[in-house]
Design brief:
This protein is mostly beta strands. It has 4 helices and 24 strands.
């Protein structure tokens, strides 16, 4: 169903996760010679922690705890619960973090399709957005309406996720047969918005109007030896308050969706980043100096010496 890309072990090569429907998921480790090894079971992401496969739908690789390693979020159908796998950085090994984060129990009654892990309030911690609706025949086996409102979970310090959907505004509470979701800053105000497709209906555009004084930075890469959009590159920024933030370039987010290729960071109260570093596909490192907040920074891959 969903497919996500990231360099899970920091070797400069892009790996691939595939969410499968009611059977074990796949994680394809990139050998670097045009071949891949499927290591989902060994890595701990193929099954739920109790050994069952879920009806995997949307997925996204992002670093939710700011330790520099891409973690994995996967949505499923009602009674599956959504899965959160924390990257331990040990030979592509993950741990099931859904119960400890509060996400496992909070999502048990939902059916999720597309999703995304983005910093929706620009506090420096990536949050979760889920497009929800049960299958059309949900009333037959779940005793529930098929249409559902979407859901937002706020990242609390990289340790747990808190359901803040009731405070997301009256428009957000309206149920529908939601499916795909794409993310971008549609009005260029520095806050990530979301457009959600609806079965047999018009798409919904959710404009992010989160308040507060948090700052942000977006990075647009232009590859020369790497692909032109820099897909697969990892971007690392260091904040004046000492925090390190990481993100990667990808458009493959969620399920049946494609999002913008910009790399975005919420900076909290910081008005600049002290350092910006890009690791291009293949492992080449490019350093950029201090960068001011609240704009799109353009980074062109350096020419060969």
């Amino acid at each position: 169903m969903g497919v996500a890309f990231a360099d899970v072990d920091g070797d400069g090569l892009t790996d691939i996760f595939v969410a499968n429907d009611s059977v074990r998921a796949f994680l394809f480790h990139n050998r670097g010679n045009g071949a891949f090894d499927e290591i989902g079971l060994e890595a701990g992401v193929a099954l739920r922690d109790d050994g069952f496969g879920i009806a995997g739908m949307g997925c996204d690789f992002r670093d939710f705890d700011n330790d520099g390693k891409p973690d994995l979020i996967v949505s499923g159908i009602v009674h599956d619960s959504f899965l959160l796998f924390r990257n331990l950085g040990k030979r592509s090994l993950f741990e099931d973090f859904g119960l400890r984060s509060g996400l496992l129990m909070s999502t048990r009654q939902f059916t999720g399709w597309s999703l995304g892990m983005y910093d929706l309030d620009n506090d420096g911690w990536k949050d979760l957005f889920f497009a929800l609706s049960h299958l059309a025949q949900a009333d037959r086996y779940a005793g529930a309406d098929s249409a559902l409102p979407n859901r937002i979970f706020r990242n609390v310090g990289g340790q747990r996720f808190e359901d803040v959907s009731p405070a997301a505004g009256p428009d957000f509470q309206r149920a529908a047969m939601h499916r795909g979701v794409a993310f971008a800053d549609f009005d260029n105000d520095g806050r990530i918005d979301a457009v959600v497709s609806v079965v047999n209906g018009p798409a919904k555009l959710f404009r992010n109007i989160t308040g507060g004084e948090s700052h942000w930075l977006a990075v647009r890469l232009q590859g020369r030896r790497a692909n032109r959009q820099g897909l697969g590159a990892v971007v690392h920024v260091r904040l004046p308050d000492g925090r390190d933030l990481y993100n990667q370039v990808t458009t493959a987010v969620g399920y049946a969706s494609s999002s913008e290729a910009l790399v975005r960071f919420g900076l909290g109260p910081n008005r600049a980043v002290e350092k910006l570093e890009v690791r291009w596909p293949g492992g080449e490192i490019q350093q950029v100096g201090r960068v001011a907040a609240d704009h799109i920074a353009e980074v062109v891959q350096e020419a060969k010496p």
